[in-house]
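We treat protein structure as text, and this decision shapes the records that our systems exchange. This encoding replaces a full spatial description with a residue-level series of whole-number codes. Below, we set out a record of this kind in full and without editing:
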Amino acid sequence: MNEKTPAIFLDTDVILDLLLKREPHFISARTLFARIETGQIQGFTSALVLWNIYYLVEKYASRKIARARVAKLRILLSILPVDDRIIEQALQSDIKDFEDAVQLFAARSQGIQTLITRNKKDYPKAEIQVMTPREFLETLYSAG
């Protein structure tokens, strides 16, 4: 991880906003990914998110499109592993949704300090910043 470039973990909903062009969230998601493509932001997600993305895109589009989208995401984002330690932390946490807990602990295991999601309420007591795409972009713009 490059210490000077902001590192963010992207939750499933933000990636789906981009891939499925879900309004009104598409613009913020597209802007985040544009910044990742230009190297202004380091983007991370987990293997679990890729599985979810593949499943949902295949369900709503096709296998061919799902494979292409996941292949592109693997180029743009660093994919974090989900191991036994992360699963154990998720099981022991107070976070109600197991998937959300896995995402949080995958991010924390790699020292990522910002998790981007539209569902901030799903991450109480996260011990890292949890922001919406819009909030994160506003902090980038205000920082220069």
Q: What stands out?
A: The chain has a mean pLDDT of 92. Residues 47-60 form the longest helix (14 residues). DSSP finds seven helices and five strands in the chain. The first strand starts at residue 7 and ends at 10.
